[in-house]
Amino acid sequence: MGNRLGDIEITDPQAMRALAHPVRLAILDRLRRHGPATATQLAPDVGATPSVTSWHLRHLAGFGLVRDAEAGPDRRQRRWEASARGFRFEAPEGEEGRSAARALSREMFLRYGDLPSRWSAEVEPGLDPLWQRAAGLADTRVVVSAEELAAIQDGIEQVLAPYVTRDPAERPAGNRGVRLLRYVLPEQDEEQDEEQADEQAGGAR
After folding, report:
1. Are 47 and 82 in contact (CB under 8 A)?
2. Is the CB of residue 43 less than 8 Å from the CB of residue 49?
3. What is the pLDDT at residue 73?
4. What does the buried/exposed string (b/e) look like for 142-166 if buried means 16 or more CB atoms within 10 Å of the residue's CB?
């Protein structure tokens, strides 16, 4: 198992908190999808002024999440690019790390939570039948151990990796960007809930 997709791995709680901001997530998303840009070019898409966008870019750069890109036609303007195709993080040990990971997770859920419904209303009606049939969603529940869940995640990435990492020149004709949203949501422990309920009932007697 490993980082098959070439994502940047965020382990520093401070970096997680730095990214847990709507403008910074929007900046990183825009750079990953459309390539290098200046703060002025990014500003309309991320909902901030060029000066505020520039400040957020420098903050992200301090944690290695964005970096300077090759200069454009106007060398006076600083161009930025994402440091990697994507990013990933795990809750570090300790309360500070877990709290930072939760903050970033919440901000990501807020940003992407309505994406499926917006896609359904704005994009799906205009797709040709071939793409409509290939699109969709699934809701699958499995009962597994934490180790098995990690193996499932790794298996999914093993399938995706050749498509994520291949050179753009190798993409077939008729390609288009596809957003694969992967929510992995362990449910509450039912046995633990029952034990807590029994303890509360015992204490109420």
Report:
1. no
2. yes
3. 72
4. eeeeeeeeeeeeeeebeeeeeeeee
Residue 19 and residue 104 in contact, taking contact as beta carbons nearer than 8 Å = yes
| Helix 22-34 with 95-112: angle, nearest 10 deg | 60
- As a whole number of angstroms, the distance between CA 3 and CA 88 comes to 9
Is-contact 5 85, C-beta < 8 A? yes
CA dihedral 90, 92, 96, 98 (to 10 degrees): 50
Which residues of the chain form beta strands (DSSP E)?
A: 8-10, 37-38, 66-68, 79-82, 87-89
Residue with tokens 């180790």: 147
Structural domains of the chain, with CATH:
8-116+136-204 (1.10.10.10)
Q: What is the pLDDT of residue 196?
A: 60
pLDDT along the chain (205 residues), means of 10: 84 95 96 95 96 97 94 81 92 90 95 92 95 92 95 95 94 94 89 61 60
pTM exceeds 0.85:
no
- Strand-strand pairing, 79-82 and 37-38: antiparallel
- Interatomic CA distance for residues 61 and 41, integer angstroms: 17
Helix (H, G, I), strand (E, B) or coil at 66: strand
